[in-house]
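Lab notebook, bench 4. Still working through the backlog of constructs that have no structural model yet. Next entry is a single chain of 349 residues. Request: give me the structure tokens for it.
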Amino acid sequence: MTLRKLILSSLLLAVLSGSYAAFAQGNMLRGKVRNTAGRAMPQVLVELQSGNGQMIHQVVTNNEGDFFFPTLTDTTYIVVISLPDYQPVNERVEFVKHTSPEQPGETRYVELTLAAKGGGAPVKSSRPVFAQNVPQAARDAFDRAIKLSRESQSKPSATPMQAVTSLQAVAALQEAIKLFPDYFDAHFALANEWMKDGKLNDAIAELEKARQINPRDDRVYQVFGMALSQQKKFMVAAAVFGEAARLNPTDPQILLLRATALIDHASTLDPSKPDREQSFAEAQKSLAKAFEMSGRKLSTTHLQMARIYEKKGERAKAADELEQYLRETPDAKNAAAIREGARKLRSAK
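Model written out:
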């Protein structure tokens, strides 16, 4: 059995054997990432932080540059994008109130623009080009689905109009697949639609079909890894991100995802277990490689390094990493909270 098949089999077993609860009521943040030319930015890592710089969730934008964070319960968040060769983005999002079973949530929508640093050309993905001769009718259905999906992103969540538009997008993708069963983009897009609706098993089925059609696309493994991380199956997620990095070895964002999963896994282990230190060490290697690969521009790696040092009890080193992040990202909107976090780390006994 090849490494790819072994990882995928472990992934499917881990996901399908677990439960995936439907999204509870809560605040929801939706957004889109574009470049300065107005074009959507796919496969961009978007991080959601609390007001004090603590990472809460990470997602990757879909083919249309869309992302979303469901079931948020607090009122203040920071959306962070730190992409090599682009100016970092820190967007503060405020909700009016906390949510509860009796109090339905709100939806916020943000448009984020990435500007290239110094006019330099962004690092190109090493993902192989995969071209298909798609029948025009299937292409038309796919294009209609993408348009409907984009419209559903801009509508308030949990409203009849949003639900209808989302269902129409799914139906259009299913139509495209019926017309052309081996339509990779349609299977992958449908998997993302199911993920948004919390239908993880349906998403897995579509991802597996997409993988069978094009086994060299790292994005399939990235989506699998994100799903596993949300289920707190961090070690399997780290292995899946490792496979994505093998398929696309020039993208430092994948290594950042892998490192984050390893840190989360180590955090669940007893400090006396050697596996904990090993996971931290592997995470540090991935972070160092991601930072160098990005031309030393991926400043988010410092926040993850700070997490490692803090969990290991090396508070001064954790503070150093937070302060280095602020030197590289002086316009961070949560700079005051991160600076305070560094101060507390240095004053802790």
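Notes after review: The two ends are 51 Å apart (CA to CA). The domain at 27-118 is CATH 2.60.40.1120 (Immunoglobulin-like). Flag for follow-up if needed.
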